[in-house]
Design brief:
37% helix, six-stranded parallel sheet, single chain, alpha/beta, 371 residues
C-alpha cells in the first residue's frame, strides 16, 4: 500500500477557501484507504479516519505584520517530528512555499516529490513591506530555486503561472485550477435586481485587491449602491477610512469573516461581484478563487481584463475593464446601472457556461498521487 506525506501550509479547519483543496484531496485519498501522514498548522481534525494521521505545527496568522517570518518559524517547528523523517514515503506532497521546508528534507531517490505552488510562492511577484520583508523574500527566492531542483512534479494554478515557471525557472508543470466546490456553489437562478445596486467582495482584504480604487469609482459614478465586503485583511482599515472620507459609512458595509459554508447562500443576495485587482506582479498571473465561485453561482462580476482571467471567461460573461483605474470602473458601473437587464443576461450566460469545479480539478492531483 502507498504511503503519502501530506504537507499543508494552512490549517485544514474551519472550512475556508485556503483549505478546501487540501480537504478535497484528503477525502479522496481516504476513500481509497491510502495511508497518509498530514503535517499542517494546528486545527480541529477535519477528517477522522484510521488512515489519516495528523501532526500539528504552530498556527500562523496570514495577515500578521511579519507573515513570512511567522511561516518560517512555524515550519521549522515541524522538525520536532523526527519519527516522520525515519519513515519511507512513496509520495511527498506539499502545498505552498512554507511547506517546502520539510518536503526538501523528505525527498529521497526512491520517492516522488510533488509541489503544489501558487502565485505568492514566487517572491519576485509579491509586493514586500517592512524592513524584514525584503531580505526574507530574497532568501525565499534562493530557496525556491534550490527546492525546484528536487521536485519531480509541479502543479500551477493557471496557464499564465505555468508559462511563467517555464520561462523563468525552466521547469514544466501541470495546471490545476483553484475552482469552486460543486457541493457548495450551485447555480442560482437570479430573477431580480436590488433597487440600490448591491456589490460584493469576499476573501482576504489586501491592498493589491484594488478596493480603494473601487470605492473611488463608486463616488465618481454617483449612483445609489451598497458595497458589501466580507473578510479581513491588512487593507481593511485604509478601505474603511476611504469610505468614511466620501460619507459612505452606511453604504460600504464590512461583515468580517463569515462561516464559509454560508457564503454561497449569502452571495446570491447581491447583484455584482467585484474583482478589480491592481495590474501588478502576481495579480496578472492568477485567477481569484472567488471568480470561480461567482461563475458557479451565476453571479455577474466586474473584472479586470487580464490574460489569466481570459483563460476561463469570454467577453460576454463578465463586465470587463481594461485597467483598475477609478475612472474606467466608474464608467462601467454607470453602464450597468443604466441597463440593468445586462446583469440578468450575463447571469444566464454563466448558467449556460461549462463550469470548472474543485472536485474535477483535484482528480488530476489524485491521479498523480496514486500513479
Amino acid at each position: 500500500m502507498k504511503r503519502i506525506l501530506f504537507l499543508h501550509s494552512t490549517a485544514l479547519y474551519p472550512p475556508s477557501g485556503e483549505n478546501i483543496r487540501g480537504n478535497c484531496l484528503l477525502k479522496s485519498l481516504n476513500k481509497v484507504k491510502i495511508d497518509v501522514d498530514v503535517v499542517c498548522p494546528y486545527s480541529t481534525c477535519p477528517i477522522k479516519s484510521p488512515n489519516i494521521h495528523y501532526k500539528f505545527i504552530k498556527k500562523v496568522d496570514r495577515f500578521c505584520k511579519h507573515r513570512e517570518l511567522s511561516y518560517l518559524l512555524s515550519w521549522i517547528s515541524s522538525f520536532r517530528y523526527l519519527s516522520l523523517f525515519r519513515k519511507k514515503y512513496d509520495i511527498v506532497y506539499c502545498y505552498n512555499l512554507p511547506a517546502t521546508l520539510m518536503a526538501f528534507f523528505m525527498k529521497r531517490k526512491d520517492n516522488t516529490l510533488i509541489a503544489d505552488l501558487y502565485e505568492a510562492d514566487f517572491p519576485e511577484l509579491r509586493m514586500p513591506k517592512g524592513k524584514l520583508a525584503r531580505p526574507i523574500l530574497l532568501l525565499s527566492k534562493l530557496w525556491l530555486l534550490l527546492f525546484l531542483r528536487k521536485t519531480d512534479k509541479i502543479i500551477m494554478l493557471t496557464k499564465q503561472l505555468q508559462n511563467y515557471l517555464r520561462n523563468n525557472y525552466n521547469k514544466e508543470s501541470m495546471v490545476v485550477y483553484d475552482a469552486a466546490d460543486k457541493t457548495m456553489f450551485k447555480p442560482h437562478n437570479k430573477k431580480h435586481i436590488n433597487k440600490e445596486l448591491n456589490f460584493v467582495f469576499h476573501g482576504g482584504i489586501e491592498e493589491r485587491d484594488g478596493l480603494i480604487e473601487f470605492i473611488d469609482a463608486l463616488a465618481l459614478s454617483k449612483i445609489k449602491f451598497k458595497f458589501h465586503i466580507i473578510g479581513e485583511g491588512t487593507a481593511k482599515e485604509s478601505i474603511r477610512q476611504t469610505a468614511i472620507s466620501y460619507g459612505f459609512s452606511s453604504k460600504v458595509i464590512f461583515h468580517g469573516w463569515l462561516n464559509y459554508n454560508l457564503i454561497p447562500d449569502i452571495l446570491t443576495k447581491f447583484d455584482v461581484g467585484v474583482i478589480v485587482p491592481k495590474n501588478v506582479g502576481l495579480n496578472t498571473k492568477v485567477i481569484p478563487r472567488k471568480l470561480f465561485e461567482y461563475i458557479a453561482l451565476g453571479l455577474p462580476s466586474i473584472v479586470i481584463d487580464q490574460l489569466a482571467i481570459r483563460e476561463i471567461l469570454d467577453k460576454n460573461e463578465a463586465f470587463f475593464c481594461q485597467s483598475n483605474s477609478s475612472e474606467e470602473i466608474a464608467q462601467k458601473i454607470k453602464e450597468i446601472n443604466s441597463n440593468r437587464q445586462i446583469i440578468l443576461d450575463i447571469a444566464k450566460a454563466l448558467h449556460r457556461k461549462k463550469k470548472l469545479y474543485l472536485q474535477d480539478e483535484c482528480k488530476k492531483i489524485i491521479t498523480l498521487l496514486l500513479r
